[in-house]
Amino acid sequence: MEERRYRSAAGAPIALRCRQHSASCRELAxxxxxLQLRSLSAVTSAxxxxxxxxxxxSENSVVLxxxxxxxxxxxxxxxxxxxxxxxxxxxxxxxxxxxxxxxASGKESTTFIEIGQVKDVVINEAIHMQKVIYYLCILLQDxxxxxxxxxxxxxxxxxxxxxxxxxxxxxxxQEILEQRKTAPQSS
Length: 187
Description:
transferase, elongated, PIG-H, transmembrane, membrane, transmembrane helix
């Protein structure tokens, strides 16, 4: 297993782990920075200080209880539905591509795309907030038109790796997809 350090589009450090299970099976995982205790403490303290200020002004203890309740519910929602620690891509040349997002709470979200539906994996670019960002996406083949694309599935939406990291993932995916294209011709 090989791990390389990169940066996200926002400049945060990320790590790309590559694991080759066989010649036609490769797993690529992008790990985002974990939730920092410092930022969590700062947000919690700010909310609770504001609540204490309102308590002093209103002399109503419901304000403090509401602040604690809102902070805890907010943290649970953030960890379970928003904060993604790792995004992985498992490419199996004979079966398909599995995309998995692992949340900070331990929850995982998995999507599988059959290899017959995959037209190609490409790096696309978009303009966002006066800068160009790059993203990797899977082009799904249109069942009615073999030359057409029915859907574009973007990958690594949370970690947003920079172009140098995306090129590594792209090359790895293309190696396996090329094996799939040349295999039927040789047999």
